Amino acid sequence: MASGIKDKVVILGMGCSRFGERWDMASDMLMVEAVEEALADAGIRRDQIGAAWLGSALDDVNVGNSAIPLATALRLPPIPVTRVENMCATGTEALRAAVYAVAAGAEDVALAVGVEKLKDTGFGGLPIRTKGSVNDLWMPYGSAPGTFAQLAGAYAARHGLNGADLKRAMAHVSWKSHQNGALAEKAHLRKPVDMDTILKAPMVADPLGLFDCCGVSDGAAAAIVCTPDMARALGASDLVAVKSVQVCASNGWELQYGEWDGSYMRNTRIAAARAYDEAGITAADIGLSEVHDCFSITELVTMEDLGFSNEGRALFDVLDGRYDRAGAQPSQIDGGLKCFGHPVGASGLRMAYEVYTQLKGRAGARQLGNLEFGLTHNLGGQPSNSVAAVSILGRL
Fold first, then answer.
1. Separate counts of helices (H) and strands (E) for the chain
2. pLDDT grade, residue 200 (50/70/90)?
């Protein structure tokens, strides 16, 4: 069995742009904003970077099909640059590539960047008919809200839940994100919203209302990684290590057989189990999670898929405040996709940025105490056809 990457790589520095409607900034400018912060944090020069990976999922108009825009925007030395894309797990995929390069001994220092200018692409409008049977099945109910609304119905049916109770729990998920996002200075949406407003909001796809859906944002995030020995040689202390990065894609099982009832994400469960095993911990050891809350129901179901809640109990744990800022296992402490924003290519790295910031004790008003391990989770695609990514960071 492979030994894994636990503690073989540390994050030397991270950066994150302000997320939002960045009409004044092109994609390359957002990259620079994030990477300049990462370089300053790492205390190195750009000519010390040995290889770089750029994640961009939907912004072909601004970024194109290669990582050349990263090399030119940052005036990198003549090093390998590679563009990666894995739907909403794109940012984590860029981080995984950089981490694996260092863990393998192929590079001393590697850079991962994720960027997206969704406001310039028109993403989030009416669904566009795709070509081919696989792509047509990718969004079977016509839109992302429609597809994830089916997740809500399937989850309620599987566990015999009252629709009003589920709606209230989903509203609590969104309420929590707005409360937390108000404390995140780089977040897109920073206004607290009361429960009554959330519950009475216009319906988008029953039972998902307006506040159950994340918006459309621009942004970038970056990580510089190296070995622990190199980090110490550069004078770094209080090191944040990569304990695990696991990715698991759907293989058609969800669409081809009758075993799956649409109420959970099988690949998230597999990726999480592998991540805990590689990190040598359990779900109970996670003190902070940043999960893929593209819709409030997704976060709720993911709490069970990650093993934080028992089967059918996430609704009650959410309402009991388990995942609130003051709860046993806070989640989305920076507002998550819902409020910090979801520029697709950057989201996985933005999640890592928050966990890294918390482990470093730099989160200011939203700082948590007694944190040893943090987890990030992405779900790229739809419940029936997706890629799940789970990363664990912790103190070394």
1. 15, 11
2. very high
Element spanning 343, H or E:
none
Token digits of residue 238? 């209080």
CA 287: distance to chain centroid? 16
Residue 159 falls in the annotated catalytic set: no
List the catalytic residue out of 172, 188, 292, 342. Answer: 342
- Nearest 5°: phi and psi at 113? -135, 140
**Any idea which fold 139-215+244-395 has?**
Peroxisomal Thiolase; Chain A, domain 1 (3.40.47)
Residues 314-327 have pLDDT tens digits of: 999 999 999 999 99
Averaged over 246-252, what is the pLDDT?
A: 93
Yes or no: say if 237 and 354 are a contact pair by the CB < 8 Å rule: no
Radius of gyration for the chain, computed over Cα atoms and rounded to the nearest angstrom: 20
Instruction: Dig out the tokens for 108 from the structure.
Output: 């001393």
> Predicted confidence band at 141 (pLDDT cuts at 50, 70, 90)?
low
For residue 330, what are its two tokens? 């806070």
Q: What is the DSSP letter of 393?
A: E
Mean pLDDT of the chain: 93
Distance, in Å, from the CA atom of 173 to the CA atom of 207, rounded to the nearest integer, reads 14
Quick one: tokens of 296? Answer: 């409030």
The dotted CATH code for 10-119+218-240 is 3.40.47.10
Between the two ends of the chain, the Cα-to-Cα distance in Å is: 23
Of the listed 88, 214, 226, 294, which one is catalytic? 88
Residues forming beta bridges with residue 226, ordered by sequence position: 10, 109
Q: What pLDDT, on a 0 to 100 scale, did the predictor assign at position 333?
A: 98
- Mean pLDDT over 198-227 rounds to 96
Return all residues near 342 (Cβ < 8 A) that are at least 6 apart.
88, 118, 214, 215, 216, 217, 294
The CATH 3.40.47.10 domain(s) of the chain lie at: 10-119+218-240, 139-215+244-395
* 172 in catalytic set: no
pLDDT value at residue 140: 53
Structure-token pair, residue 373: 């391990």
Structure tokens at 190: 């920073």
**Local structure of 236: helix, strand or coil:** coil
